[in-house]
Design a protein that fits this description.
Length: 193
């Protein structure tokens, strides 16, 4: 417990994660470990939660070639329900920046956005998407964000609209891009002039 809540012990936490082989532990054990983490008091520090998100999930998620197992999904949803900010900063950022299609990873991020993340974390995902070059891979994530029907902060909405306007020529024949623009105009019609 002291390793996970005290910032001076972060190298020891990294070492403990490696020693316990958390990045490769069986998924049923991962679910139990996450349940134990959620029961800790006081809560994990931001940095400890980020280290654990990286150790527990990053390798598993980036290597997905098929939908995640129910155990992995249960562990992911339970962890990100309590530690969504460090989770998004570590895991979602890595998925968004990963080159290539990453179909399973994109679907996973969409599912987390649609079903698990709190509104502030959804806004964080949107800001992360807008920090990387727009691609077909990212369009479903933006669609999932808009599907939450949340009122977006003006600065994020302005950045989204500006990005879509600037990228429109590159997506001239993209059905996904057309759907996204329609979603922006529908969901945010009271905010878009």
């Amino acid at each position: 417990l002291s390793l996970m809540s005290h910032p001076l012990c972060l190298p020891q936490l990294e070492g403990l994660c490696s020693f316990l082989q958390l990045s490769t532990c069986p998924e049923p054990c991962l679910v139990r470990f996450c349940s134990w983490l959620l029961a800790l008091s006081p809560d994990l520090s931001y940095t400890s939660a980020a280290i654990l998100a990286r150790q527990l999930f990053l390798r598993r998620v980036l290597s997905l070639t098929q939908p995640p197992s129910r155990h992995l999904m249960a562990a992911l949803t339970s962890f990100c329900s309590k530690y969504s900010h460090p989770f998004c900063r570590v895991l979602v950022a890595a998925v968004l920046q990963e080159p290539g299609e990453g179909a399973e990873q994109t679907k996973l991020v969409c599912e987390l956005v649609e079903e698990c993340l709190e509104p502030h974390a959804v806004q964080l995902v949107l800001s992360q998407v807008l920090e990387v070059p727009l691609s077909e891979k990212l369009l479903p994530v933006l669609q999932a964000v808009l599907g939450r029907q949340e009122v977006l902060p003006t600065e994020l909405l302005d950045l989204l609209v500006l990005t879509l306007c600037q990228q429109a020529p590159a997506f001239g024949s993209s059905l996904g891009f057309a759907k996204l623009v329609t979603a922006v105009l529908t969901v945010c019609q009271s905010q878009v002039s």
